[in-house]
Protein: HTH cro/C1-type domain-containing protein
Organism: Candidatus Enterococcus lowellii
Amino acid sequence: MSEILFNRIKETAKRKKNMNVKEVGLQLKIGENAIYSWKKSNPSIDKVEKVSDFLNVSTDYLLGRTDNPSVLSDEQKREQTVEEALQSVMSYDGKEVTENDREILKSIIEAYLDKK
C-alpha cells in the first residue's frame, strides 16, 4: 500500500499542482521528507486526509482502494451504494430484474439506508 500511496501523491501533485512531493510536504507543514518516508511506513490517517484535501482527491484513491480520484458527496456515495446493490441483484429464477422490480428494490434499499 505504501508504494501505491507515494506514487499516487507524486503523480497527482505533479498533474494538479505542478509540485513534487517535497513541495507538498512543505506546503502542508508535514515535513519536507515526510511523504518520501511513506514508501516504507504507513502515515497517520490525518496526514493522508490533509494531502487528499490539498490535492482534491479521495483518500480511497490515494490508498489504492479505487481508481476514481473524485471526491464524492454523501449523496453521491449513497447513490453509488444503491446502484452497486441493485447491480448485484437477480430475480429468483436467475434472470435480469425487471425495471418495475428494480424501482421497488431501490425504494427498499433507500429506506434501509435511511434507517441506518
Remarks:
- The chain has a mean pLDDT of 86.
